[in-house]
Amino acid sequence: MSYDTHDWTAVIEAQRERKDEYFGEDRRSPLPPAVQAEFDGLDYYEVDPDYRFVLRLDEYEDPEPVVVGTSADGEQEYLAWGEFAFEVDGEPVTLTAYKSERDEGRLWVPFRDATSGEATYGAGRYLDLEPDDHRTDDGRWILDFNEAYNPTCAYSDRYECPLPPMENWLDVRIEAGERAFEH
User: According to the 3-state scheme, what is the secondary structure of 117-171?
Assistant: First the structure.
């Protein structure tokens, strides 16, 4: 798939600006008020086309329910919908995509990688894949780690977040998307 790198980069940067504005100014921000008052933006890796993949999803014939642990020692149930297979720096990796409900169009791809707990949030990050924005005309999905973001529990312990299942713990570094939040 060809795309204009300048336009694509501008879209990612605009998404980041909107998120920073929301975090810094909106009363529904996940940041505690004292932190929000001092907030001057999230930290991101530079936008990098090497972390943008256009892939087929190998959908499972009979998606199975999976219980996922949460940051507050709870549990949530998802359907393991299929997996993406690709390479990062020459290393083969697979990531499982999940759905909350069978009829839902969007996919949720939680992951940990070799940057987790170092440069990125220790519990992992998420990708949300929306059919209208992340699906190509030929049915492939756009898995863009430049859009990887921290769950809300990275900003405040008042949130309970699902944790990436172990099958989505990667041994490679994903140096793209949102970095750890320091406050």
Answer: CCCECCCCEEEEECHHHHECCCCCEEEEHHHCECCHHHCCCCCCCECCCHHHECC
DSSP states of 67-132: EEEBTTS-EEEEEEEEEEEEEETTEEEEEEEEESSTT---EEEEEB-TTBTTTB-TT-EEEEE-HH
Vertex 115 angle, CA 172 and 65, to 5°: 70
Any idea what DSSP says for residue 54? E
Which pLDDT tens digit goes with each residue over 121-170? Answer: 999 999 999 999 999 999 999 999 999 999 999 999 889 999 999 999 99
Measured distance CA(110)–CA(151) in Å, rounded: 9
Written as six digits, the tokens of 90 are 């020459």
